[in-house]
Design goal:
By secondary structure, the chain is mainly alpha-helical. It has twelve helices and six strands.
Length: about 375
């Protein structure tokens, strides 16, 4: 399978390429780890052959929403950005740049996948192709806006280099559905939780990009609704034993990755006046609740051992980072890390084997 890098246009995010009087330096991308955003490719022929008739009316309605392009005039920088970067202290500056980079890479990953899907399936499945084209447009705007914000700190990502150099993970279409649905919905809850918090605590708004989060997260929500409708058009993705097992897997993978990553960079959330752990618990609960509308099962995130085990992952991950940062030879590092890899595998297995909740029996948490 040829990855999207072969044909996607790296310069698509329009604001990413606009210069400033002092051209920003190109930032080297962070090393890929299990916690960094991934780039995906899939079986384009299988996507093109999908029968949308079981839910075509809803998909057409969602496509009409995409055509309206509610945020076409939203991502316009204003005078508040002038000098805002200089007001941040060095520690906050560093963690905020990391946030911008991770978010930009994630949005750009979505752009590449959606753009290539649109191009490759256009002739055989025009409605699906059009939906992907509109979502690629949205992700390009998001990535470009984030990259432009990095430019305020004298840095920008070379999105063309990322396109060509990143490793692409192949996922079957149904796995793309699970992963991107959760990515879009958890993105909605992450952005709206930050926005609502900063509405109440404007003194913690460290940068004007957060003013854009309310409309921004509505793009994420619409994208998630699209994948919801697409899965309903392919009933085998949300029915039967296989679907229940895979939905559990993807829910756990997304929640655990976010929790470990966010606690590791808790200083960013502290700069916003948030506690990373409590913030993630709210986002996880809301995403789990939302997922019950389409997934056949969701996780029991209120189980007393759920966060205990996530905390063990956090602790093990910190030990892995310490081993990576040491000056020991590579074979010694591997030996030091091995017990923590095994321990993480055991904790993930225990989390996965916790009894899930059937969606028809799910009761929203009081959180």
């Amino acid at each position: 399978m040829v990855p999207p890098a072969a044909t996607a246009t790296p310069a698509a995010p329009p604001t990413a390429a606009t210069g400033t009087p002092d051209a920003p330096a190109t930032k080297d991308p962070v090393k890929d780890t299990i916690l960094t955003p991934r780039f995906y490719t899939t079986d384009f022929d299988a996507m093109a052959a999908m029968d949308l008739r079981p839910n075509e009316v809803e998909l057409e309605a969602i496509c009409e929403e995409f055509r309206k392009d509610y945020n076409r005039h939203h991502f316009v920088r204003n005078g508040e950005f002038e000098g805002a970067a200089e007001k941040l202290d060095p520690e906050t500056r560093q963690v905020f740049i990391e946030f911008l980079e991770q978010s930009c890479t994630s949005e750009f990953s979505g752009f590449l996948l959606y753009k290539e899907l649109s191009r490759r399936i256009k002739e055989k499945n025009p409605l699906l192709a059009e939906c992907f084209a509109h979502m690629a447009r949205d992700e390009a705007r998001h990535a470009g806006f984030l990259n432009k914000a990095m430019g305020d700190f004298g840095l920008q990502l070379d999105l063309g280099f990322l396109t060509a150099s990143k490793a692409y993970t192949f996922f079957k279409p149904k796995f793309i559905f699970y992963a991107t649905y959760l990515s879009e919905k958890i993105g909605y809850w992450r952005y709206i939780a930050i926005y609502r918090h900063l509405e109440k605590h404007p003194e913690s708004k460290i940068f004007p990009i957060f003013n854009f989060f309310e409309n921004w997260c509505q793009d994420e929500n619409r994208h998630g609704d699209f994948f919801d409708a697409l899965m309903k058009a392919q009933p085998d993705t949300v029915r039967g034993l296989s679907a229940r097992l895979w939905c559990r897997f993807f829910l756990l993978a997304v929640f655990a990755t976010m929790y470990v990553r966010d606690v590791a960079r808790k200083e960013f959330y502290e700069a916003l006046g948030l506690d990373a752990r409590e913030y993630d618990k709210v986002v996880i609960a809301k995403t789990n609740e939302t997922s019950a509308r389409v997934f056949p099962v969701v996780l029991n995130v209120e189980h007393p051992k759920f966060y205990v085990r996530l905390e063990r992952l956090v602790s093990n991950n910190a030990k892995l980072s310490e081993a990576d940062a040491s000056s020991a030879p590579a074979p010694v590092k591997v030996l030091r890390k091995l017990p923590y890899w095994i321990a993480n595998g055991a904790e993930m297995a225990k989390l996965y084997l916790m009894a899930p909740i059937r969606s028809e029996q799910f009761q929203p948490s009081v959180r």
